[in-house]
Model the fold of this input.
Amino acid sequence: MNYIQRIQKKIKDYRETKHLSDNPLVADLQKVLDRERVLENLSDRISYSKDESVFEGGIAGPVCFPLSAKEVQAIMKVAEKYERHVIPRGAGSGLAGGAIPLGAPIVIAMTKMNNILEIDIDNRIAWVEPGVINLELSDHLRPLGFHYAPDPSSQQICTLGGNVANNSGGPHCLADGVTDTHVIALEVVLPNGDITTFGGIDAEPSGLDLRGAFIGSEGTLGITTKIAVRLSPNPEDVQTILISFPTMRKAAETVSAVIADGIVPAAMEAMDQRTIEVIEQHTPSGYPSNAGAVLLVEVEGLPTGVEIEALRICEIAENHEAGEIKIAQTSYQRDALWKGRKSAFGASTYLAPNYYLHDTVVPRSELANVLDKVNDLAEKNNLTIMNVFHAGDGNLHPLLVFDANEEGTLARVHEVAAEIVKISLDAGGVLSGEHGIGIEKQEFMSQLFTDADLDHQNKLRTAFDPQCRINPGKVLPTGHSCADIQTLNKIPEGTWV
Amino acid sequence: MKRPIDQNIKDFCSEVGAAGPVAVEGGKTRWNLNGFPSENTRFIKAPKGILSAKPEEMTVTVLTGTPVSELHKELQTLGQRTCLPDRGGTVGGALAVGENDLSVLGKGRIRDSVLQLRYVSADGQIISSGAPVVKNVSGFNLHKLMVGSLGTLGLFAEVTLRTNPIPPISKWFTAASKHPQNVFDIVYKPAAILWDGETTWVQLEGHQRDVEQQVQKLLTIGNYEEVEGAPGLPRCRWSISPTEASKITREETGNFVASIGVGIVWADKPQSTKEVDPTVRRITNSLKSEFDPTGRLNPGRYV
Done:
């Protein structure tokens, strides 16, 4: 037996020992799943205690990898027996802390339920499991003449189950809508273990729209085990245009003017000067490095409409002091223009090792004013900020880049982030356009909603999950979800079994 | 910032009060849907008026007693439209019923267009869900739940809808056709395809040349000619899958007009009642208990 084999045997022996643990919760979970699909050692649990946000919660309890709705149901029954709450999880790409365990819940990782089950071209739908990666579905559909429209910036890693939980959007949701427009039915496992289907492939399923209420509930109402998504036909023509402006204000005014002109592009993305500089330094994409801002606009549909609208957008931009205008002539050029946009967040790490990606929405007409205030705020607080965002939707993504090792910086970042929320709300905007509330913004909910509004949101939650068994402590602020607090208080701090 | 509440909504809220059976009357165009209000129900009207229409935001905020036709007339002057069906009813009625327009493929679904809803709760409070911006994932989607709830969970007072630009051209074409699915397969994003078993009607929207090119495609599968509009529709409304709609027969429905690619069928005969899954029923009942514990909102009506 060589050294590596000895190490492997040691690991195996350790795991076998742990499997013989008389911990009854783990033992029961291992009875309903394969042993290999229940992780129980500390390092594994720590791995499943984080998402892509800057927040930290507790340490996960056992991590389960079900392969079917029946197995999810079985886990829920075990959780009920031991009065443990559960937290569902996809790829963990969320940015609002929605997948972070509070207390020490059983984690249900849906990533092994990752099959595309059925493509039904005649009905223009596909049934998929929640662990399917967003981009993989569209890659699968495109040769068939279709795609799945919502395309979050994390689409290479995020799962469709996570998209359902967060009602995810993406650059191309301006014309076609976000996840709830494109998901028509869901198979779910409810907190008591019932398996049911919300919505359906019928034109107008009867009864309350439980599907619509469930999508975007951030994993608090149940666990999605199967999803019927709508297939969108690939456009016959696409034009991608990069327009430079002397200032972000002019770019933002162009966005409003284009929409007011009766044009709804497929995408309208904005990037500020610092973003352009960073992209061009590290992922050269042909962006004009002397521009104050650029808009990346995509128009798609039938050829004449695309041509007319693209020309009109260029005219409107020129009326707003546009500088260079590049129209991609080939798919290669189009990909190159998008490459810059898609690499912006990654390129930010060249400025500093950490980033906090914010997410608010404001009315389009307020974009320029809000951005001015956000930039002033960052400057006053000595923080570097990049703005790369879905301008067409008014969906801001201020990216604060910083070094968390510098004392006091993270606290300052959180303070500025809170102030950005206030600026956005004062402008008639909302807390989040894509990332959700999670734990990041739950205490801001009272700034957007009245106590009565929040109590009604809790009524919805309570009707599905009266004991707050699934993902407690998220979305609703303290004082508006009493069952959450009761549930979490049952778990002694630091305990996982 | 919480958007101010219009005085008309406050007055409506007072009228709803906090006790006694109450329901809102709209245009009564779908009054016979899912039961009738109990005899002792007090009927009130929702307030009327357009509060703001912003084409640059693609939104309109309107009080729910406003007739859909009035809303669309005003929006037309701004080059915009909503996806609400105009069959003589009110905005609130269209939301409460939740049935989509004939041209749903082109205009979109009602459930996707509601950005913010203000309703009066069973205990007489004004509740807001959502926000008047086109993209929002801030909190639970009560406004989605309310669409199609027939006024049994809350009484609608004000809504902000996503609007869309009116396309430059909108035309109907028709031809004899036994295979309407072919149209769905070859035409890019038609606004509507209707079929009565022998004839197909297609609504095309967009720029003139694009519509002309789409018509050329239609001519490869039939002798399509331009017509004034959609055919008359039978009284009963079925909801089935798109493929079922393209295979439906008169033996099942009597005379019918099917919406191809959608699954709505207007028929002489009513659709048989579908069984509701017991778990869906349980959640529905729980929601009713949470939102209207005394059962005072639109009593007698069920969802």
About this structure: Chain B has eleven helices and 16 strands. The CA atoms of residues 28 and 89 of chain B lie 7 Å apart. Chain B has a mean pLDDT of 96.
